[in-house]
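Incident review: delayed structure delivery

Summary: a single-chain prediction request sat in the queue longer than the usual turnaround. Root cause was a stuck worker, restarted by the on-call engineer. No data loss occurred. The affected request and its eventual output are reproduced below so the record is complete for anyone auditing the incident later.

Affected input:
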Amino acid sequence: MRTPANPPESIPPLQSCLSQWLDKQTHHLSADYRQYLQDELQKIVSYQATIGVMGKSGTGKSSLCNALFGQEETAVSDVTGGTRYPQEITLAYQSGRGISLIDMPGVGESLRRHEEYREQYKALLPELDLILWLIKADDRALSLDQQCYQELLQPHLANHSIPVLFVISQADKIEPCREWDEQQHRPGPMQQENLALKQRVIADTFNIPASLISVIATAAENYGLPELVENIVRALPHERKWGVVREARPEQISNTTWQLCLACLWQLLRSRLGDLTRKGKK
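Output delivered after worker restart:
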């Protein structure tokens, strides 16, 4: 299967690029089949991904959103009731569609509110496609994160197959912070060792594989963001992957991520075509 080598730089070229790609894959089909697949293509590319973002105050959740998607919030609304509300931020190029980021409460708030938060999570989690949990690189106190994870999140994850990715943020602030390479925008040798140690500690604390932990620095560095986007795309359901590719900054979409999305897109379209054929439609 021949595919476009690189992701386009904006949304109209994305749609045009994918349409041309699909034409090459389906040139042997009838006009009706090709039109059907083009319609399905537009539906898939337009799906919205809903991502819950957790972490203590100051972990850089807003900075991460801006670094990945390059725009300010276009809408903020309360998702559920209560005295502390998850806040929804919709980032979209297309009228109301795009990435929905939900800033979820609980981490760093009063532990007295855990019962209230449990009910909110119970109502909200079925709507999520993915959860990002941010932890500052220089934050050594993980007990509150661990408690919130075990008490607020894990009980509901047993009933909902929602992937959770951990993100070590502000990597440039880990000691020795003066070692950060300002020219190459990357950690120095000792920082790299300490970040690897931080990954192991988080993996042990939350009993997760290290592959689910990304390391980033967003403050004018953009370190690790393409790798994070790749991990997000891998974790999302096939239909939701394109929401991220469509809205993310072009420089955050690696060729690996692009090719992965194209392969999943072709798999979805072949499945839709197979369903259509089995129904005997023309």
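Verification: The longest strand covers residues 87-94.
Action items: add queue-age alerting; document worker restart procedure.
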